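The material for today's practical consists of a large collection of protein records. There is nothing in a record beyond a sequence line and a structure line. Backbone structure tokens are a discrete shorthand for how the chain folds in space. Nothing more is needed to start thinking about how sequence determines fold. As an example, a complete record with its sequence and its structure tokens follows.
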Amino acid sequence: MARWTSRCAWPQPWPSRTGADVRVFGPRPRRGAELIDPYFEEVLVPRKGDMRAARQARAALRAWRPDVVHAQDRRAGLVSAGLATTGARIVHTYHGVPDDVAEPWFRGVRDATPPPAYTRAVLAADAAVARVVHRTVVPAREMGRFLRDRLYVPPHRMTHIDNCVDVGASNPPAGPVRKLVFVGLLVERKGLLTLLDALETTMPQDATLTVVGDGPQRMQAEGRVTRRALTNRVKFLGFRSDVPQLLLEHDALVLPSTMEQQPLVVAEAMAAGKPVVATDTGGVADMLGIPGADCPRPGDVDALAARLRELFADPDPTSTGEKLATRARERFTAEVCARRHLDLYRKLTASGR
């Protein structure tokens, strides 16, 4: 029997379905903990530099003698890389670069401003971990290109596996798109102010925008709405835990970020059958199945406004939503994600590499 362990909770293929012995190590999840309780062992590493806690975490993992260890974030990757010589196969999912890495530098644009020295040191550590572990999983293909071209990680040490979301019933818009929703932290890189600027000249009188999320830019965004022609048509809900339901209740998602990788909310909107307007950042265009040139450039108010006009004028948003829902079911379900991870684990344990 194989023994697989993860450093955090994800939609695991549990023993009854795989014949494997599974255990989850890490802090207790705030949501869904009851789903992993039979397989859960609490292990805490409060800070990346806490060497004592890291040694204790490695000791707990080593004592269980796993065949595969799957680390699910940067800190878990640093801890688990120290187990690469124990005989276990170490897998690390690289979810994204630090927030102060700008899209142009991420994409290798010549003369793009590099991130600060501390962030470059973090990326150097990421590169070192990727060379030590047996396989790095990248949810977005653009992330794989970044690791290859910027951090010089050998391509054969990476595997692309999409993120997954809960996929339920879809509800494509039945008529013209009028109810927009934005979901995300209210911080600069999410581009909410750019969206408000674009909507000022494009928003039909009967259209609305619902902003789901909170953060330091909320007061500035609310002030901009009050001063402009968007008063009474933009609603701020703050943080919400019912995002899938809110997506079903709206016509389309807008995500004008300056930096993303493979945002879960885009996959959730697709699964709900909603058209998506998003900027050409990270792997978003690939998620939607369109050329990056068809997405507005990050920060380009005019291009975003033009794309929004097309969305409001779309005579058949139902068809668009249905196609996106089909695509989401092909790529982003938990079943697809689990199957691809299982294939990777079996390949690594069979080959020993």
About this structure: The domain at 3-164+333-351 is CATH 3.40.50.2000 (Rossmann fold). Confidence is low (pLDDT under 50) at residues 7-14. The chain has two domains: 3-164+333-351, 179-331.
